[in-house]
Amino acid sequence: MDNTAPRQWHWLFAAWMVALVATLGALFVGEVMGQAPCVLCWYQRIAMFPLVVTLGVGTFLNDRNAVLYSLPLAVVGLGFAGFHTLVFYGVAPEAIQPCTASGPSCSDDGMTLFGTVPLPLLSSVAFALITIFLIVVTRRRP
User: Fold this and answer.
1) Does the CA dihedral 53-57-58-63 come out positive or negative?
2) Can you tell me the distance from the alpha carbon of 47 to that of 140, in angstroms, rounded to the nearest whole number?
3) Which segments of 28-113 does DSSP mark as H helices, in order?
4) Residue 131 and residue 75: Cα distance in Å, rounded?
5) CA distances (Å), 65 to each of 2, 58, 96, in order?
6) Is the pTM of this model over 0.90?
7) Contact, 23 vs 52, CB < 8 A?
8) Low-confidence ranges of the chain (pLDDT < 50)
């Protein structure tokens, strides 16, 4: 008996849970706490919000092909989140920072959760976990 399918389902479910929690967290910060998203936050939302749908459908239909649609979004989101983390910590040069013209800052104190946890770092961790979980699913394909 092949028991790899349930294990793949668990990894897919874990990726969906991370995407769901990250999406609800972004909505909480924006809608409840009233913090407007910056330019880089919008790009990360564009990558994260569809993951809830693609991974959710894939998980509940037990369709591992959802990885084909979700992994590119997770990798692109990881790139934006990683760059945002570099901007937040002042590593990225000012010339390539997209949030300096107008609108919310990409790197001020408003980019923290409860004043301590940097939101770009949380986003990077979420995208990294989703990417790792989806790679594990592809590695366990029969």
Assistant:
1) negative
2) 25
3) 39-60, 66-88
4) 6
5) 18, 7, 36
6) no
7) yes
8) 1-2
